[in-house]
Design goal:
globular; alpha+beta; 2 helices; 7-stranded mixed sheet
Length: 115
């Protein structure tokens, strides 16, 4: 399963590095695993409450949503070129269970509806 986490520019900027962009997708065996893996790469929650984020802008990270997607027509950014595109807010970082990462421009996903 995959969960998508979206970043708010709390304080007027995004936190961007090799693991996170403004949009991050994490694969896990279940929702708890997705959240745990997200936190290991630097995603956190309740930042305003904990004093990490700007109270007027709100929490930096929004909770995850289960998604489905296809990379058949994806615009993949080679890992060695990510530093050039990392501040492009249209780049999504996908973290797979096996540890692989992909960087995708103009990522599109569909939310999985609860039954």
């Amino acid at each position: 399963m995959f969960y998508q986490f979206r970043q708010n520019n709390s304080g007027g900027s995004y936190d961007i590095d090799d693991d996170i962009s403004s949009n991050v997708v994490v694969e896990g065996v279940d929702s708890d695993d997705c959240y745990q893996r997200a936190q290991k790469i630097g995603i956190y929650f309740d930042g305003v409450l904990k004093g990490q984020d700007c109270d007027c802008c709100g929490d930096r990270w929004y909770g995850g949503d289960e998604i489905t997607f296809s990379l058949d027509h994806a615009n993949e950014v080679p890992a060695q070129d990510y530093s050039t595109f990392r501040f492009d807010h249209n780049v999504t970082v996908i973290h797979y269970l096996n540890g692989d990462r992909k960087y995708i421009r103009d990522f599109e996903a569909q939310f999985v509806e609860e039954v």
